[in-house]
Design goal:
mainly alpha, two-stranded antiparallel sheet, three-stranded antiparallel β-sheet, single chain, globular
Length: about 200
């Protein structure tokens, strides 16, 4: 099936942002933005779990208590991510790389399933990684699933409200094309946050 022309620039943007974040986390180099390669080592567990300020939300073992202001740990496996049912705290808590990457991977994986899968996955089904290597691998798998879901859509699907049945966003109210745009901005802004936290960890620790 040919790719809808409207989807091409958004898919290109997704691919660029995905590669840049993956390279920023795993190395050995990352594009500086102007075509120059900058050396970067793989993200360590210390960086992944670093809490730069008191009261961070992060990922924790299910045997532990949630972080300050959180009421539960969501996710499958031994680890979960700090959260609380709406309404969320205001101002929002500062979150670690682990929290941001888990959130991003979960969003990609669940939206892929609710677009071109069984449309059944929930946050409780999505594994949360307790280490950096596992989290990077989970991000790659989730991004691959989302990209595959995008390749399954046609022009009619792009205009369909509720084509993706993801239960945690505006998917039920917006045309699918707007959801694709939203996912890209999530990847871009969380990717930038993760990169900044890596820089801060390197300079402040």
């Amino acid at each position: 099936m040919p790719l809808p022309e409207r989807l091409v620039p958004l898919l290109d943007q997704f691919d660029f942002a995905r590669k840049r974040l993956a390279d920023r986390m795993a190395g050995p180099v990352v594009d500086s933005g102007n075509g120059t390669d900058v050396e970067v080592g793989p993200m360590t567990d210390a960086e992944y779990l670093w809490e730069p300020v008191p009261g961070c939300w992060s990922v924790r073992r299910h045997t532990e208590e949630p972080g300050k202001g959180a009421t539960l740990l969501v996710g499958a496996g031994a680890w979960g991510r700090d959260t609380t049912p709406p309404p969320h705290p205001v101002p929002p808590p500062f979150t670690t790389i682990a929290w941001r990457l888990s959130h991003l991977s979960e969003m990609l994986a669940l939206r892929a399933d609710h677009t071109d899968g069984g449309r059944t996955l929930t946050r409780d089904d999505h594994p949360v990684a307790g280490d950096a290597a596992g989290a990077v691998a989970a991000f790659d798998a989730a991004a691959t699933a989302w990209r595959r879901a995008l390749l399954s859509v046609d022009d009619e699907a792009l205009d369909t409200v509720g084509h993706c049945t993801y239960p945690h966003g505006s998917d039920a109210e917006d045309p699918f094309l707007e959801i694709v745009w939203w996912v890209n901005q999530e990847l871009l802004h969380h990717g930038a946050e993760i990169a900044l936290l890596r820089d801060l960890h390197r300079t402040l620790r």
